Amino acid sequence: MPTPADIALNADGRRLTLRARGVERDFAALWLRERAPDTKTLDALTGQRLIEAAELPLDLTIEHAAIEQETLTLSFSDGHRTAFALDALFGRADAGDDLSLWDATLSELPRADFSAALDDDDALLALLESLRRHGFVKVSGVPIEEDGMQALIDRIGPLRMTNWGGIADVKSVAHAYDLTMTQRGLEPHTDNPYRDPIPGYIWLHCLSNAAEGGDSTLVDGFMAARRLKAENPDAFDCLTRVASQFRYVDDSTHLESEGPLIELDSAGRINRVRYNNRTERIDAYDTDTLERYYRARRHFYALITDEALTVHLKLEPGDMLIMDNYRLFHGRTAFALDGGVRHLRQGYVDRDSMASRRLVLRQRASQSEACT
Questions:
Q1: What mean pLDDT comes out for the span 236-242?
Q2: TauD/TfdA-like domain location, by residue (predicted)?
Q3: Where do the domains of the chain lie, and which CATH numbers do they carry?
Q4: SS3 assignment for the chain
Q5: Tens digits of per-residue pLDDT, 260-278?
Q6: pLDDT for the residue numbered 174
């Protein structure tokens, strides 16, 4: 059934207002012209732009606009004619408005089955969509082998290589080069904020776990940031503006990067969180800025360590967590080995690979539905 839609041009033709699907949106004439989806504007094979957008006339206007069925047709003052499918202008957004934020009351963990995601595109798409929506997925049935996760990474990948290699051990060792390799508990944190770019997704696979303790803790950083904004707007503003430094150094590696603890996108939405007490090194800002920052950080820390926002779970052999490292704070409780070995394996996959695979699978699913 056609989508009810109507359009209106402003007096000078420089702006078009489109109302459809209960939403009203304004579009600049120049934006519509440079985004025209026709073969005179875009290469049919690559989809890349053929015209030089910066050379379009700044006073370009829309001379005629009409909607027929699900198509918007336009004529411009430079003589160009084109047509947009309404879906292209009001299609499903990926801006984060449909994310499911959660706290300790989360009643059911997002789950996936390793074999199903490995063998079936629909199951893999469901895993990736759930991961985007919730920020993590618990995957069961992973082979209890050192590189058991690799086959699923290869369905998405590539695996992100770091100075530690690809898939690396997370277990207690005698001479630990990182606190993750000890038996101590770890505060909620994001991984590797000292890298550029920061790894997008953490894959944490359990081969064996401790007899006591060693529980994983998860906190939705976007929920914590939203709570901070509601409770203390000045602290929220401070943590979006003051950049902190992060640093990791060992005998063969020196990594440094910076960024605010709460990062916003161009539309002012929460886009990324950082927290890593072990590697943060705040610059020597002026005293007033530092005092404001320390107060704000304390409030944020109180939220991300609040049991009301924390989900606890214990990974069993063959379980794996995939976590959004731009959104989730993860940690663990201290553990005792009692003669056993707590052995997890960890790898990273970047955001562009994960997003690309999800969007390609989503497009294929839509095309398949359209054909049935």
A1: 98
A2: 111-348
A3: 5-90 (3.30.2020.30), 111-359 (3.60.130.10)
A4: CCCCEEEEECCCCCEEEEEECCEEEEEEHHHHHHCCCCCCCECCCCCCECCCHHHCCCCCCEEEEEEECCEEEEEECCCCEEEEEHHHHHCCCCCCCCCCCCCCCCCCCCEEEHHHHHHCHHHHHHHHHHHHHHCEEEEECCCCCCCCCHHHHHCCCCEECECCECCEEEECCCCCCCHHHCCCCEEEECCCCCCCCCCCEEEEEEEECCCEECCEEEEEHHHHHHHHHHHCHHHHHHHHHCEEEEEEECCCCEEEEEEECEEECCCCCEEEECCCCCCEECCCCCHHHHHHHHHHHHHHHHHHCCHHHEEEECCCCCCEEEEECCCEEEEECCEECCCCCCEEEEEEECHHHHHHHHHHHHHHHHHHHHHC
A5: 999 999 989 999 999 999 9
A6: 43
